[in-house]
Specification:
Elements (H helix, E strand, L loop, with lengths): L5 H4 L11 E3 L8 E4 L4 E10 L6 H18 L3 E11 L5 H17 L3 E9 L4 E11 L14 E4 L5 H9 L9 H8 L3 H9 L4 E4 L4 H13 L2 E5 L7 H8 L5 H10 L3 E3 L5 H8 L7 E5 L4 H10 L6 E7 L6 E4 L2
Parallel strand pairs: 4-5, 9-13, 10-13
Antiparallel strand pairs: 1-2, 2-3, 3-6, 4-6, 7-11, 7-12, 8-11, 9-12
Helix pairs in contact: 2-3, 4-8, 8-10
Bound molecules: cobalt (II) ion (CO) (2 copies).
Length: about 325
């Protein structure tokens, strides 16, 4: 399923409207936003994934960071989380306990609370969380506000899908990817807090549709285009080699197939690098469109918060809505 296929599945009934619903099904935003009084709105999201690493505690942490991220992408603060799990009865229940423990610790780190959950029997383990947050309406950041001239900032490296594929194919072990694991378990809280202080125009988090998919969604929703530079996009050293070795999952090919008509590459960018841009991410960073005169300040705030992997990757430009030019840089 590509970034645009959701619309074909979702049917919005005419009765399913509410004046309090600020952000709903119609955009490809990260979470729904429902106004509760004059100044505040609830931010609601749900996300679940299958194990991306073998360590159940780490998997729990990654899953929770990934789910909480959609609240952060909109400038919100998480309040409550509910667990959702699928688990085979053939496996030791202690593993499920470790997964939930990992998730719980991340929710607590985010300043939120786990308020309940539900587990069903499932052949393949799955874990996810439904998260409710709160946002000051004047600090709300959506996917749709980018303007030509804005600077595009990415707050985590890309390549987790390629690493996970290599892990599944036993080309690497979890010990070979400590930085990527640290990145996937890291909350986007600081990047989110900082973006509300520089009046970011638009934001989203980079997950299953890859960097280009989420950038395309932001540009299409904003009615703008983007120009990014390959040389500025952060990744982990081993990812480039693994891409050359063909450690590419089906999701990456789906993304590429859907997105290719929107993307123009400068000559001389090798296929392994292009693949990285389509790579589905788990618990990726925020992609933020910052007014050009505030970009330096945003980067300063990210440095102060020790968000070590920030990078200015390009800019928002005029042009066909949703189109992306990738230069070598
Ligand atoms: Co998201
Ligand atoms: Co190469």
């Amino acid at each position: 399923m590509g970034p645009g296929d959701l619309e074909k599945i979702l049917k919005v009934f005419p009765e399913n409207v509410s004046s309090e619903l600020i952000v709903g099904l119609e955009t490809r935003d990260d979470a729904a936003v429902f106004q509760i009084d004059e100044t505040r709105a609830l931010v609601q999201t749900i996300d679940f994934i299958t194990p991306i690493v073998d360590d159940p505690f780490v998997f729990g942490q990654i899953t929770a960071a990934n789910a909480l991220s959609d609240i952060y992408a909109m400038g919100g603060k998480p309040l409550t989380a509910m667990n959702l799990a699928g688990f085979p009865c053939s496996l030791d229940m202690g593993i499920l306990g470790e997964i939930l423990d990992g998730g719980h610790r991340k929710v607590v780190e985010a300043g939120a609370v786990v308020v309940g959950g539900h587990t069903v029997q499932d052949d393949e383990p799955k874990y996810g969380l439904a998260v409710t947050g709160i946002v000051d309406i004047d600090k709300l950041v959506t996917i749709a506000g980018a303007e030509p001239g804005d600077v595009l900032v990415l707050t985590k490296p890309i390549g987790t899908g390629i690493l996970a594929t290599a892990l599944k194919r036993q080309a690497i072990t979890e010990d070979d990817m400590p930085e990527a694991i640290a990145s996937m378990t890291a909350l986007n809280a600081d990047a989110s807090e900082a973006m509300t202080r520089v009046d970011a125009h638009a934001a989203t988090d980079v997950t299953g549709f890859g960097l280009l998919g989420h950038l395309h969604n932001m540009m299409e929703a904003s009615g703008t285009a983007a120009r990014i530079e390959m040389g500025r996009i952060p990744t982990w050293t081993e990812v480039h080699d693994l891409a050359h070795q063909g450690m590419i999952a089906g999701g990456l090919n789906n993304n590429r197939q859907y997105l290719e008509p929107f993307v123009g590459f400068e000559d001389g960018i090798e296929d392994a690098l292009k693949a990285m841009l389509y790579d589905p991410q788990t618990s990726g960073g925020l992609l933020v469109a910052v007014p050009a005169d505030k970009a330096d300040r945003y980067v300063e705030l990210l440095k102060e918060a020790d968000t070590s992997a920030w990078a200015i990757i390009g800019e928002v430009v005029g042009g066909l809505a949703g189109s992306i030019t990738v230069e070598k840089g």
